[in-house]
Fold these 4 entries.
Entry 1:
Amino acid sequence: MTRRNETADVVVVGSGIVGLGAAYAAARRGLSVIVVDRTDGPTGATIRNFGHLCIGAQAGDARRYADVSRDLWLRLSRDAGFWLRESGTLVAARHDDELAVLEAALPAGGIRMLDTDELLRRAPLRREGLVGGALIETDLQTDPRAAADAIVRHLRSLGVQFRNRTAVTSLSAGRVETTRGTIVTGNTVVAVNHDLDQLLPEIAERRGIQRCALDMMRAAVTLRHPLTAPLLTGWSLVRYGRFAAGPEAAALRERLHTERPDLAALDLNQMYTQLPDGTLIIGDSHATATSPAPFQAEAAFSAFLAEAEALFDMPAPRVLERWQGVYAKGAEEFLIERGDEGALVLAATTGIGMTTGLGLAEENLTAAFGWTPAMEGTS
């Protein structure tokens, strides 16, 4: 059925985590909200991830948005009724240069070094080769597939309307044109992530936005005890802002790339999360292009499994699913811009959307639209 001339205080284009965060920010202030998405629901980076909210590994603006997001994730998990745990994040160190990177980050707080015995109590790893590790204390974990659906249901209960299977064709001041008619609005938020080039190509081209494709997998595993938190390795330390900038990380990166050029060629982030059903998410690789090829080389998955078997004390995993993740990638961590038509355009342009997206939306909608902060304790 075609709808004509609907009205809303806020129209959000895109139902990924940033778009849902924008809708949540508006709904908590009592505003009417319509979310428009060409799909049936979240299908992109918001569900194709580890469910790892890696707050304490961020720096600068990313850390500020992550801290705001943390509070919002905790509130949403309570009100929307989805699984989330204050797990922290484990880091397994297998070389002294990895310990050096962790120790260099200690003065900022929120990280506790672990000896090998404590790390093994928290993660079912092989003792051989371990030299210790750390716990990033602020981090959270959820199941992204369940969380996204639960957030949509909760937003509906707050009065947010969703127009799914509806494409936006153009934007103008106070109007959003869609394949089902016109929506008249006071404020428009565009949160379409890697599909920005399809709606606002000038902004995407000016900001150098491309797509980063990731290979990931989920496996059934037999572990001697559960993994108590998401687990990172040295390959992760050279990626995240809090760890990656110092000379210690430069030395670590040089060693890793020299010893394992095959893994460096995959642009590996060797990390793991265990879901409530006991299965393990394993990954991931990175390949950046305007339109990445959809074909997934088996070499990447073979490397993931080999590295997992070398790290964990377990029999060979049984692969249940493989998939390609995708997110927007740019020269900076975030895209925040007002388009010529007045829309607020938001994106996390690195792979930290789940960690920062709720805070990115909350802070920038408040500033752009002149809102007062939402009252604490409101849904």
Entry 2:
Amino acid sequence: MKRITLTTLFGIASVWGSAHAGTPITIGGSFDLSGPAAEVGKDSLLGVQYAVEVLNKRGGVLGQSVVLNYQDNGTNPQRASNQAASLVREGAVMLMAPQSSADTLAVSKTVSAKLKVPMCVSASGSEDITMKSFQPYVFSIAVNGYFQTRAMATRLAKMPYKRYAIVAADYAGARTNAVRFMELMKEMNPNVEFVIEEYPKLGAIDYTATINKILAAKPDYVFTSLYGSDLVTFSKQATAVGFFKQIDDRFIALYDESTLKSLGQFAPIGSDGGQFVPASYLATASPQSKEYVNQFKAKYGVVPSDWTTSAYECVMIWAQAATTAKTTDADAVMHAVESSDFKVIRGTLRFAKYDHQADTPMFIGRVDYSKELKQPVMTITDVIPGATLQPSEAVVMKARQSQ
């Protein structure tokens, strides 16, 4: 089907679809505002709140105001599912996915799929969400594990490193990412070997044993899928004992803006890193993205983090889909998601019909220190188009058949 390019239609005052004049449209979210994914959850909530504010200033959606109803799930899958179901019963016509992959998978299966409510994934990185455990009401703009590992493997496979160490939190999504990275590395460079795999628990507070085991294995390079507070804790402890110096900074992780800010003097300057939507890049990428960064900073005093911008874009994509569908009806909105081009802060995104995963780009660079900002930053060296990272339909179907 021919794709439809959407423009900004939020100011239209007509009343369409299932909404009623004067009745606000509710979107809901069970956010990880406490627990291991709290920092990501707080940043994501801020992005949704800002998006709702922007939408309402433009006239709302379908001529009606938008309201956000949310709760804190404590990074607990069962609680996230219960809360999401409650939010839908209270009238939410769209759900923001939680930030932890385990929470998102639970909500996707037990709420979004069963109650037929569109759910946008902005942060959860498990590829299982759109591949193995796909359901027709989920859509994702997160740079998932497949995209992340493919981008990093593509870069590292060209390097002279042979012996790799793997560090991932001990939960399904992180283990899937670790396995995918190893598979892709072997595919791209059959000479690599994995000398150690470490899977500390999610939310670990002491990484001493993991750090010592990695050093004892003497890897040429270390890959980790730790993120958020886990990555902050690991990096601080690793820096304190000279871990990064001992491995010559041959290390790569997802060092988003908020994680780098939290690390401060403990940031691994010189290490490699990936980001999803770096504000430093957006500030010069286009007039639209520059205006977004400047207006956000003027309001909150800080630049938007990767998680904040992704969550903001999720809401805007749903709003554009509802506008082109002329209704908040779930099936009509999902049809619009499948058949439309969406102009967002980071560019134009398209969703594959077979997995509802957007072709989001991946940003790779090196951790530096900015004297101007007085904090560590990521100097972006490579912008890898999402179209080159997206799994083929054959790869996705193979994953689903493996259940």
Entry 3:
Amino acid sequence: MTTTDAPAAAPARWLAVTSVAAGTFTLVTSEMLPVGLLTEIAASLGVSDGTAGLMMTAPGLVAAASAPVLAFTTRRLDRRIMLLALMALLAAGNLMGALAPNYPVMLAARVLTGVSIGGFWAIAAGLGPRLVPEPAVGRATSVILSGVAVASVLGVPAATFVSSFAGWRTAFAAMGAGALVLLALLAATLPPLPGTDSRGALSGAFSGPLRLVLVLTVLIVAGHFAAYTYVRPFMEQVTHAGPVLVGVALLLYGAAGVAGNFAAGARAARNPAAVLITLVALMVAGMAALPLIGLPLAVLVVWGLGYGGVGVTLQLWIMRAGGGELGTALFVGAFNVSIALGALAGGRVADGVSVTAVMWLGAALTALAAVLIAVRGSRAQQPAVTPAGEHA
């Protein structure tokens, strides 16, 4: 990839990189907003916890479809205009959710959120080479993707904290307001980013290594969200944790996840398979330990360390596989459909069996990924493509 759009001296472009990272943080936090608020929203809108879990399923499925579709069909359009439009759509979805009088309206709001998530993430992930000089591309890409990783582990505790003081509607309204602030920031910092014709990337987007990473993404992310979507009901119903303990536990999970993200990012560029299998082992240990021994604080720290590094490790493996922009969009699609499927499967198990059984479901799916990495990972991570971060 080239950096023809980036000037030699680019302090302003690093502001743009930071703005995009803040945008990805806002998007993914919005996607996972219902996790920490699930019990409150279900009671307020008169649905079961399992049905409320569809607030995760709907945007995940929509984002999964919109990522590759928007990346390909809008490839000729200025990416700056696309990012601004998608951020405006996110603001509308969050504010609509804050005002939703019933559950169908809430689901409609979550569909709007899903379109924004899929399109923005797919475009933003490949912007590093267009915003900074070539030697800094790897670092810029890491900063942009850190918005996704940090949101994945801090968004839920932040929303839970706001909700504990002002209610779940305030949490949605705050994210809507945040999206409007980001819209202004992106408009002020992003340069024109003319579209390109990316049809030539189609062949590289379906390579064998990339297919393996996509399968691993589905197993790991679906396993995680099958369990994590219902971690608050589990703590309340099984370990009898009160609101304060729930908030502290999710906050510790978030802090551990941030540490896992940066620890994995420092090691995964050269050997993503080895790093990923370690992360998956931590996740399985955390999910299985909750129903066995309780101790939500210590267990969620272990779980957070594992999942916190998954996103950056999978993304580095995607870069190594050489799938190009469409490959990244397919990864975004797989990631989001996995969120949807995991939340849906967890909801069926939570309603049909118990919230304890949901933890075992998550552990089983994630353990399957560990087996697959052990069998095929070493061979599949050795294409002739150098990860973007190694030349930075």
Entry 4:
Amino acid sequence: MKSLTDPLLTICQQAAKSIMDIYHQADFEQWHKQDQSPVTEADYASHQIIVEALQQLTEQYPILSEESSTIPFSKRQQWSRYWLVDPLDGTKEFIKHNDEFTINIALIENHQPILGMLYVPVSGECYVGGKSFAPMRWTAEESWQPINHTAQDSKTLSILMSRSHLSTKDQQLLTDLKKTFSVKVVHAGSALKFTWLITGKANLYCRFTPTSEWDTAAGQAIVEAAGGIMLTSAGNNFAYNQKDSLINGPFLATTLTGSRLTTVNRVFQQVI
């Protein structure tokens, strides 16, 4: 898996260039899909570059991308290993010009992400991690460097919440967690939230509103590579490509361990 790191980085850099070229335009094309979620010409440009580049890799696997997601489950369920791609995660943030969007590429094997890459087009930072290696961060100044996770105060929960998708259950979760912990809320858009977990800026990310499988797989791979965990509302490990719908249920992603993880998971399940 680690041998794919540099080829995937090159692919993300190429896609990011197309994204940023459009981002810097005074105006760009945007539409709404059938589910009313926004999509822009940058989403499609990035998708095209990533898919074509993945098809040129030595190891060939099927590709499921947000912008080509109509592959029926009857076909997908036969895949034991495939690429899961979000060519532009955080389209709403892209449209708002707040810089908080990413490129997500994950390799899924037997329903679990075994490799994940998150690339931040605005900064050029890249995060990668997998089943067989600890997470690393790439910058133009330092190249690949291991990420040294910084543990936070055991009495404090730094909980990540979306800028665009807060719900009444989010508020209930905060109320219930404050009965036990000192709670700090950190807002971030897109899959950037997963990178904040592994760099120690936060230690908890709970999500109740819908996401899609390509939104979470790369981040999950990296968090798990750092020793973290991502759980369903039933307390099971989060899995992919197990049903016709590609919409995720609620989840909890965290680097917490021990009694703090037990307490947080109990509160999370009660809120659901």
